[in-house]
């Protein structure tokens, strides 16, 4: 009897925690999109107004940001500073592969960032500015779209996790 009760509680709690973790990912993703927009603005200002060399601008942007986004810019700067013969675009792409591991960003946002790799460090300052502005605007639209649905998605995951656990227990009984 006690084993069944304990097993039932563990199932409900396990599914509930799973729902809570998924809801946290949604919040984390929205926070990272906002941080990414701020970071791209910071990088753009460093490149266009301060005329800072790209490796240093990426490093400064990494210092400006927190968490996975800051780590992404720091790694891009490290790849460039190693002087192993890779281009800025290749360093950006290598940083993106690491960003995938350390962030809650989805493929849509990562694909937008992939487009920056073709422009960064090889085109004129104005072209880089246009590219960063465009990506920033697209991220702003993604953020606005997802912000409307964020609360509903979070509630769905939270309640859905606990409901799934409860249904599973009822089916097992």
Helicity, as a percent range: over 70%
Radius of gyration: 21 Å
Show unreliable segments: none
Number of strands: 0
pLDDT averaged over residues: 93
What's the order of the H and E elements? Answer: HHHHHH
Q: What would you call the shape?
A: elongated
Total domain units: 1
Q: What would your notes on this structure say?
A:
- With 173 residues, this protein is an all-alpha fold.
- The protein has one domain (2-172).
- The chain has 6 helices and no strands.
- The longest helix is centred in the last third of the chain and has 48 residues, at 125-172.
- The model has no long low-confidence stretch (mean pLDDT 93).
Can you describe this structure in just a few lines?
By secondary structure, this protein is mainly α. The protein contains six helices and no strands.
Mind sketching the topology for me?
Layout: H1 2-48, H2 54-64, H3 67-81, H4 88-102, H5 107-116, H6 125-172
